[in-house]
Design a protein that fits this description.
mainly alpha; Chromosomal Replication Initiator Protein Dnaa, Chain: A; 9 helices
Length: 141
């Protein structure tokens, strides 16, 4: 009987986890394999550049440095994939409006903050060495 209780508890935890992350799983499944690879590549590159983990990005952490990294990540994913804001948001447990707001924030900073533009250019050059930052960032560079 004790084992049954533990089993019930484990299955309950698994079921709750599946419900919590259902949108993220659905988003990952709906994105094609090529785009998932691009997202993973961007995710790993941005996290390595800033010295953070993917778990830190996915967490509900609102510290300024994490919010900035997350915004850059969302911006690059939006530029380099055909994923909708909703799909990107679902992958990270965020609403599409959060992704839209992050993208607008990055675009505004690119127009006004030259140090931010240089940093984003460096990130793009590290993540996509075969492409030029000008190609990805367009007229912002």
């Amino acid at each position: 009987m004790i084992e049954l209780g533990i089993q019930d508890e484990k299955s309950g935890l698994i079921e709750r986890a599946m419900c919590m992350y259902a949108d993220q799983f659905k988003a990952l499944i709906s994105a094609d394999a090529g785009e998932r690879e691009v997202v993973n590549h961007i995710e790993n590159g941005v996290c390595a550049y800033f010295g953070v983990t993917v778990d830190m990005i996915r967490a509900r952490d609102n510290r300024r440095n994490i919010v900035e990294v997350r915004a850059i990540l969302f911006y690059l994913i939006r530029l380099e994939t055909t994923m909708t804001l909703t799909v990107i948001g679902d992958m990270y447990g965020r609403d599409h409006a959060t992704i839209l707001n992050s993208n607008k924030s990055v675009e505004n900073r690119l127009d006004t903050d030259k140090a931010f533009l240089r940093r984003l250019t460096d990130i793009v050059n590290v993540i996509f060495p075969a492409k030029k930052a000008k190609e990805i960032l367009g007229g912002k560079y």
